[in-house]
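Please, structure for the following, as tokens.
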Amino acid sequence: MGERHGGGSREATVLFFTPPPSTSYEVRCEVEVHEGDEVWEYTNAVHDVFHRPKKPRNWSRTPAYLFKIKEIYDNGERAMGG
């Protein structure tokens, strides 16, 4: 999605699914790619707080993706008549 990570579309569809009883959601988003800015710094700091890496990681080559939700669809069994 980022210039170094595929380029192209700034839209994405994210699917969430659990095994039966099936819960499934389709989330359509606009995507922002952040590298070296405040969003990028915050995202990587929060990651490190939760995962507590033993040694510092070089985040300079890892973009942060911000997904802005546009639409959500319930594709679960009940929503589909199951």
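Helices lie at 38-51. The radius of gyration is 17 Å.
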